[in-house]
Specification:
The protein is built from three helices and 14 strands. By secondary structure, the protein is mainly β. A ten-stranded mixed beta sheet has the order 1-2-4-6-7-8-9-10-12-14, with no helix packed on it. It starts with 16 loop residues before the first strand and ends with a strand.
């Protein structure tokens, strides 16, 4: 995958590397692994993909102007975030992270999805990347991170959150408010929540447009509080355990273009 990374060529010409035209500083690293979809018999072959540990703190320290990082569909085994300020982020029960955790990176786009063997027991490192606008962790096992919702709401610019198939269990259904301030797209599909749709979802004031919650073991009826989400364009609730009627008031969501309630 790194065959073009030769000292005989300027690094801005390497595969997956993009630099600023004026400063020539590295701004993007895009190294997703291309694989052939597995058959029913064989597993997906990732022997040619990147592996080992992602030293995220080193990446962000060395690549001061890095705003885009795509390492999706590789075979990384661990993510490490070591920092001399890391002790300041250990207690994230407070509403706002300590000052040392804020604006310590220019990174706006992070895609680590489909690294199925990536061991990630905690998301506390997110507090060092408060500039994130796009976060994709699809397919990563996060069942040990019980505080995921509070941690992702500490990203004030986050507009797209994808945590499909992360083995999440707690959707905090009784929580009234979640402090998303810029969220437009939310994908929490293929998790095991075994709860009703959460109250905080209907109280979002950020103008969310797309909600994907298919195959997430949701139950109960569609609450009329959905009408609070007046900018909603896509509502995907396929393959859950929802019950009751499909309400007429759904027609009051004037921007709704795509509604999927199949297999409930």
């Amino acid at each position: 995958m790194l065959s073009s990374w030769s000292t005989q060529q300027d690094c801005c010409g390497w595969r997956g590397v993009k630099c600023d035209n004026i400063t020539t500083r590295v701004t993007q690293l895009s190294l997703p692994c291309s694989t052939i979809p597995p058959t029913y018999i064989d597993e997906e072959d990732k022997s040619h993909c990147l592996t080992g540990s992602i030293y995220l703190s080193l990446l962000l320290l060395e690549f001061e102007f890095l705003n885009y990082l795509d390492l999706s569909n590789n075979d990384f085994l661990a993510i490490k975030f070591d920092s001399m300020h890391s002790q300041n982020c250990h207690n994230l029960s407070v509403a706002t992270p300590p000052r040392q955790c804020v604006n310590s990176s220019a990174l706006r786009y992070l895609d680590l999805s489909l690294n199925e063997n990536l061991a990630m027991n905690s998301l506390q490192w997110l507090c060092f990347i408060s500039s994130l606008e796009y976060l994709n962790l699809n397919g990563i096992n996060l069942h040990k991170e019980t505080n995921w919702l509070q941690l992702v709401t500490m990203l004030p610019s986050l507009s797209e959150l994808r945590m499909d198939g992360c083995q999440l269990k707690d959707l905090s259904p009784s929580l009234q408010y979640a402090n998303f301030t810029a969220l437009r797209v939310l994908d929490l599909s293929k998790n095991k929540f075994y709860s009703e749709l959460p109250k905080w979802l209907f109280n979002l004031s950020c103008g969310i447009s797309d909600i994907y919650l298919y195959s997430s073991s949701l139950r109960g009826q569609l609450p009329k509080a959905l009408l609070n989400l007046q900018l909603l364009e896509a509502l995907i609730l396929e393959s859950n355990n929802l019950s009751g009627p499909i309400p007429n008031w759904l027609g009051e969501l004037e921007h709704l273009q795509y509604l999927n309630l199949v297999r409930n």
